[in-house]
Amino acid sequence: MEAIIRIPIIVCLLFLMGIPVAKSVCQFPSYYDGSWYHRDSGSDTNLIISATSGTWGVDRECFQKVDHDKIITSDGVNATILLKTVGVNCYICMDVIYRSIYIMQYRRSECKTEGDIKLCEGISKLPEHNELVTMFKQVSPVMNCIASIEGLFQFSYEINEKGGGICNNSENILEACQTPGSPNYDNKDFLMRFRVCPDVQTSFRQTIRYKCMGTWVANMNNNTYTFVGLAHDETGVLQDKYKCLMTLRDQHSEDNTIRWGLSRFGDCTNLKSLEQSPIRIVLRRVAPKTSFMIPQCILPRNLTGTWFTQGIQFASSVWINDTHIYYRTMMSQFDYEETWFACQANLGTRFLMSKVVVGRCEISFVCFDLVPRHDGIVRYRVGRSVKLPFTLDERTRDKDFLVTSFKETCSWQWLTFSRDNVDWKYEVLIQNPPSPVICPIGGRYSFRQYSNDFYQLYDTRIRGITLSPRNKISCLMNVSEFKSCHGDMSKMEIDATYCETVDYRGRPIGEYEEPDHILTCAGHWLEDMKSYMITYDEEDAISKFRCWVYERISWTDIALSRSETARCPKNQNSRSYEIDGARFYMALTETERLFDDCPPRFDSGITPNAKPRTLYTLYSGSQSCFFSNLQAKYFMFVFLVFNFFSFRN
Ligand SMILES: *[C@@H]1O[C@H](CO)[C@@H](O)[C@H](O)[C@H]1NC(C)=O
Ligand SMILES: *[C@@H]1O[C@H](CO)[C@@H](O)[C@H](O)[C@H]1NC(C)=O
Ligand SMILES: *[C@@H]1O[C@H](CO)[C@@H](O)[C@H](O)[C@H]1NC(C)=O
Ligand SMILES: *[C@@H]1O[C@H](CO)[C@@H](O)[C@H](O)[C@H]1NC(C)=O
Ligand SMILES: *[C@@H]1O[C@H](CO)[C@@H](O)[C@H](O)[C@H]1NC(C)=O
Ligand SMILES: *[C@@H]1O[C@H](CO)[C@@H](O)[C@H](O)[C@H]1NC(C)=O
Predict the structure, then answer these.
(1) How far is the CA of 126 from the centre of ligand 1 (A)?
(2) Which of 283, 340, 464, 510 has minimal CB crowding within 10 Å?
(3) Distance (Å) from CA 270 to ligand 3 centroid
(4) Ligand 3, residues at Cβ distance < 6 Å
(5) Is 475 in the pocket of ligand 6 (CB under 6 A)?
(6) Backbone angles phi, psi at 43, to 5 degrees
(7) Gap from CA of 223 to ligand 3 centroid (Å)
């Protein structure tokens, strides 16, 4: 009787005090309904909550209830509830944290004699992680919440008892696979195979399928952890049925491993940090095992080696042998992804490759179209990948499966047409470390440089040690200089301010200087009527490899546009400097001086394998030179014209 009169007064009071009150009628939401497992002071307990009658266990009932504001959008709300014990003057504050339809956590107070929810601590401050008891609903969960566990892993485990010891059996495998068509689809569960290590007493042999009950995030000691409630349905032992899993958010370990803390029982409070967890697990990504990784064909022999390739977003280092291609792609400063390809079928330049990504479950097929290697460059295109259809038994697969896959995956249409990628550009593998090749642009030039970003421009800097002491004579004439001369034709030297003043010997003072930037040529080719070149600069902090588009715009002028990475954007031309991915352009004008001994040369890359190398040795060095400079140039011109026509034929 008393209670009924008191409720409206309290509600008014609460309103006046500005405390969030959503509902005053003391009823539990429907998701409270059911039987809940929890470890109440260390023993297995089943709690029956009835939403309709408002009872909590056998002898407590809802007296007052305050819903808290939602911090995150979820189906349920956090609440503070005042429970009255039937027949006794005992009121208990319960702070109930909603985690999922299968998991709730609570903090319980001691018996209070006053039935006033305002006096509950949780009204002003909700409990912390370590104050909470976790309740698991006693049903078989159907929940999709382990997106963060997706993949295939080998793991080591360490149990905190009987002296412990780490068991790192290579057959400890965690499988969280999303294979369409397989019975375990949709991220509702994952499989852990625990195997025995002979020298670790606590190790055991068991295969457990864990189902997901809910996931949430909590802060502890300035770290953000992700918690996952797990159920092991198939066990008859109630104690072993529920587990709590903890992992650090944004975990970036150098070896690409993932660390987990796992509880022994259905209890999350014991998880205080990854190191202090009762069961510690270290996951390593592994590649799925498949007979399709056994090679069936051979890649061109001269592809063997280590390479570099720049994707649209991430760069990869690539390793190739006769049969396999391996990509290692840095996804961030810490995380990398490893991909394996194995040769399955080959016709001409097209290679059907099976593909697996380390840590991912699916096996797929993809077609590589490889242009024959020239210098340190291999150009290739990759078709769309097709997933290997799931069959429970590999032996039932069609014998002509590879032939069919080849037809499907390597058809020219698949290589050249994708709806959003009509004008195709080849990907490029660059030999890494690069082997220098003769630069397609040679001679001595002055240049003007263009960029909207000051930092893109070449500026003067003092590289390393100056071999001879710098001349004290002040420079009267500064020019820009770009040159690639007979000394080392695989290098292009760029000096933003080169001193052209001569000293007492009649030599330019600049001769004593080291060039500001030295680019090594790694390869060049012609594609879509555009000449591309790759350079290498060990000292380039942004990208050691750079892609350039170059073009001869008159007999004495050359335009070059530099991309920001080793990949030239599709819309880049020789004068681009205002597009995404290419923000620098330089215009060269020939400035060969009498004693420079630096004949201009230009190679558009039209026939990379049939280059007449003799052109460069025609006159080497001023001492032995019997052509005058003018004659040499005339000769060059004739030769170039001749070349031009002979290529045409
Ligand atoms: C319930 O409280 C916890 C702990 O303060 C918080 O992390 C969670 O987001 C809250 N839930 C909702 C639905 O607001
Ligand atoms: C655990 O075993 C895996 C595979 O068997 C191995 O790659 C890894 O280096 C081992 N880890 C440790 C810490 O020994
Ligand atoms: C958490 O961070 C605060 C401020 O950044 C610091 O004062 C405190 O000592 C840290 N606590 C722990 C447990 O590291
Ligand atoms: C190529 O590499 C794969 C993977 O490491 C290896 O299994 C294979 O034996 C290698 N092939 C040759 C011909 O060395
Ligand atoms: C590499 O091999 C292919 C054929 O297998 C050949 O066409 C190409 O010229 C070779 N390239 C080099 C640089 O040896
Ligand atoms: C040329 O550059 C040097 C060093 O950068 C500078 O000291 C000198 O004054 C410049 N001379 C002229 C004529 O600009």
Answers:
(1) 9
(2) 464
(3) 21
(4) 221-222
(5) yes
(6) -120, 155
(7) 10
Length of the chain: 649
Q: Which pair of tokens denotes residue 498?
A: 């080169």
| Whole-structure pTM value | 0.78
Q: What is the pLDDT of residue 647?
A: 44
What's the 44 CA to ligand 3 centre distance in angstroms? 35
Q: Which atom of ligand 1 is nearest to the CA of 216?
A: 7
Cα first-last separation, the chain: 109
State the closest ligand 1 atom to the C-alpha of 97, by its place in the atom list counted from 1. Answer: 1
Distance CA 593, CA 444 (A): 8
Q: Is pLDDT larger for residue 502 or for residue 353?
A: 353
Residue among 31, 71, 131 to mutate when testing ligand 1 (max atoms within 8 A of CB): 71
The pLDDT of residue 21: 41
User: Is there a contact between 450 and 536 (Cβ–Cβ < 8 Å)?
Assistant: no
Which one has a higher pLDDT value, 564 or 515? 564
**Residues 298 and 322 sit within 8 Å (Cβ to Cβ):** yes
- Name the residue type at position 222: N
Mutate to test the pocket of ligand 4, among 319, 323, 339 (most ligand atoms within 8 A of CB): 323
- The residue type of 73 is T
353-369 exposure pattern, b = at least 16 Cβ within 10 A, e = fewer:
bbbbbbbbbbbbbbbbb
How far apart (Å, rounded) are the C-alpha atoms in residues 322 and 300? 7
Ligand 6 centroid distance, CA of 476 (Å):
7
Is the CB–ligand 1 distance for residue 126 below 6 Å? yes
| Cβ pair 375, 356 in contact under 8 A | no
Q: Which of 192-206, 470-484, 612-626 has the lowest mean pLDDT?
A: 612-626
Structure-model confidence comparison of residues 42 and 560, the more confident one: 560
Q: Residue 478: CB within 6 Å of ligand 6?
A: yes
Mean pLDDT of the chain: 82
Atom 6 of ligand 5, nearest CA residue: 372
Q: Which of 461, 465, 503, 497 is nearest to 481 (CA)?
A: 497
Integer Cα distance of 60 and 49 in angstroms? 10
pLDDT at site 313: 86
Distance 607 CA to ligand 5 centre (A): 13
For a mutational test of ligand 6's pocket, the pick from 474, 479, 498, i.e. the residue with the most ligand atoms closer than 8 A to its C-beta, is 474
Q: How far apart are CA 325 and CA 370, in angstroms?
A: 13
Structure tokens at 189: 């569960």
The mean per-residue pLDDT over the stretch 431-456 comes to 91
Helix (H), strand (E) counts: the chain: 4, 35
Report how far Cα 429 is from the mean position of its chain's Cα atoms: 20
Convert the pLDDT of each residue in 65-113 to its tens digit.
Answer: 999 998 888 889 999 999 999 888 899 999 999 999 999 999 999 988 8
DSSP state string for 576-618? --SBTTB-EEEEEEE---TTT----EE---SSTTS--GGGGGS
At residue 522, the pLDDT reads: 93
